[in-house]
Amino acid sequence: MKALKTFDDWKHCITVDCGIPLTLDFVEERLVALADPTDFHTQKFVAFWGDAHLARVVSWFEQAKRELE
Q: CA 59 to CA 64: how far, in whole Å?
């Protein structure tokens, strides 16, 4: 699995490949979890992808949130 590099690629992966609708509730829940270093899934994400990619993904969720508001 390769790290996604653009917002559009990430959005396609979430909405098309995974079939997850980007709702405001979903985006806000993910932002809370990704901001919590004690969250199990966030820890696994960082262990696999690293802090730099976490920061990119958080920025993409923030962008998605802006688009949904």
A: 9
Gap between the Cα atoms of 16 and 63, Å rounded: 18
Q: What is the pTM of this model?
A: 0.91
pLDDT in tens, 22-49: 999 999 999 999 999 999 999 999 999 9
Neighbours of 6 (CB within 10 A): 10
Residue 58 lies in a domain: yes
Task: Provide the number of structural domains found in the chain.
Answer: 1
Residue at token pair 């997850």 = 20
Query: 60 and 10 in contact (C-beta within 8 Å)?
Result: yes
